[in-house]
Amino acid sequence: MRTDRRLTLIGAGLAGSLLATLLCRRGYDVEVFERRGDPRIRGYAGGRSINLALAERGLNALRAAELEQEVLAQSIVMRGRMVHFAEGGTQLQPYGLNEREVIRSVHRARLNLALLDAAERAGARIHFEQGLDDVDWSDRLIVLRDADGIERRHAFDHLIGCDGAGSRLRESMQREVELGMRVEPLGHGYKELEIPPSAEGGFRIEPNALHIWPRGDFMCIALPNTEHTFTVTLFLRHDGADPSFATLADTKSVEGFFERYFADMRELVPDLLADFSGHPTGELITTRLDRWQLDRRAVLLGDAAHPMVPFHGQGMNCAFEDCVAMERALSEYGDVGDAFEAFFTERHANADAIQTMAVENYYEMRDRVDDADYLLQRELERLLARRHPGWFVPRYSMVSFTSVPYALAFSRGIIQRELLIEATRGCSAIEDVDLVALDRRIEARLPRL
Q: What DSSP state is assigned to residue 218?
């Protein structure tokens, strides 16, 4: 087979297995090397949250692989954010304008299994327990190491790095060429807990929502699982004054923290102390790169290229959109190097935009969703979306329910936020807003999408 049809993928996680499927269906010869064992034999050992938010960009990629219906059958619809106020009570804030505009909670492990099966059906050759150790760039050899530490070398023509935020391929590329990498720690970490099923086996709280307990500088969220559990995640500063993970050093401080800030949720987590002490504290980091490719030899995508914090639920969706863009670039360009460059040119600004929006969404979720001015602006935003369809589209809708480029959603979102702030300044109710004047400003500043 021609060398421009032979592709070697590093990583058989969500992005790697989906990309392998798409490329094999296009007639590429695809070989995949994965550090972990085959989860279909040894069980899933991802070490991360068991559920993810699937939105339109991810669904579009699954359609291309003819996997949409299989995955949707194993998902749970989330229609909006269920906000749990500090003073008590809840409010559902719908994500979209109609019943079709929803996101879905999907089980990470089951999704990975479905994607692995699809990749192998399509013809990909997947090698498990073969972790990338290094790359000999001059001779085009990857150095692999198995679980017993035994080394082997494998020739490649072109490498695609799908090996996640801690990418070993990225490390090796960085030693060969300057990638312009900038690491931006958030200063906050996360800890996962679990709400078990009720005594009758059902959900303990509303299943068709993403639950949020916003508390200013920190928050908890909960996503539903098909087992009728919820994965709860506490996001909190690592260090500093109480509360922070540093101040939650013993059973008493943990109990007191949850009873003070999350009393209604504390009642739902019977194994709180065991979960808190038994689960590691995760890191929240954004990593930006000025380049993702090394001429015709290698390119990065997904979390290997643009690790982001999880607060817009777009990490997987963005990675899946990368896969579609990579498959399209390889199909359109005769030269692999040109395809890698075209892929980077298309995706880099979009990845940078969603990385920024993900950080912004953290501040919104933890500190804004229960504010009166935010709620008024949100009400006006929904009214304007109906009043100006195709012109005023909420940023969240552009990101989650369309394939509008992230960079365009970001730039339009800035203008729309300015319009909302200007229109609601000094207003306490939607009736106080001068809609006629606002209509004119929208027409002047926003072209049709």
A: -
User: Which candidate, 309, 304, 24, 84, places its Cα nearest to that of 209?
Assistant: 84
Are residues 105 and 51 in contact, defined by beta-carbon separation less than 8 angstroms? yes
Strand partners, 188: 237
Encoded tokens for 335: 């030269």
User: What is the number of domains present in the chain?
Assistant: 3
Tell me the residue range of the domain where 71 lies.
3-75+105-182+287-361
Task: State the residue for tokens 């996101």.
Answer: 103
Percent of the chain with pLDDT strictly greater than 70: 98
Q: Which amino acid is at 392?
A: F
pLDDT tens, residue by residue, 390-447: 999 999 999 999 999 999 999 999 999 999 999 999 999 999 999 999 999 999 999 9
Query: Are 252 and 140 within one domain?
Result: no
Instruction: Tokens for 160, please give them.
Output: 């695609």
pLDDT tens for 105-128 read: 999 999 999 999 999 999 999 999
In this structure, what token pair is assigned to residue 1? 């087979």
For the chain, the straight-line distance linking the first and the last C-alpha, in angstroms and rounded, comes to 44
HSE-CB at 415 with a 13 A cutoff on CA atoms is 16
pLDDT computed for residue 366 by the predictor: 84
Starting from the edge strand earliest in sequence, which strands make up the sheet with 141-145, in order?
131-136, 141-145, 151-155
pTM: 0.94
Indicate if 128 and 245 belong to the same structural domain.
no
The verdict on 130 and 9 lying in the same domain is: yes
Q: How many CB atoms lie within 10 A of CB 402?
A: 17
Backbone φ, ψ for residue 210 (5° rounding): -95, 115
Residue type, 134: D
Q: Is the pLDDT of residue 3 over 70?
A: no
Beta bridge mates, 185: 285
Specify if 243 maps to a domain: yes
> What span, in angstroms and rounded, lies between the C-alpha atoms of 214 and 192?
16
292 and 329 inside one domain: yes
80 assigned to some structural domain: no
SS3 (DSSP) at 352: helix
Do 62 and 130 fall into the same domain? yes
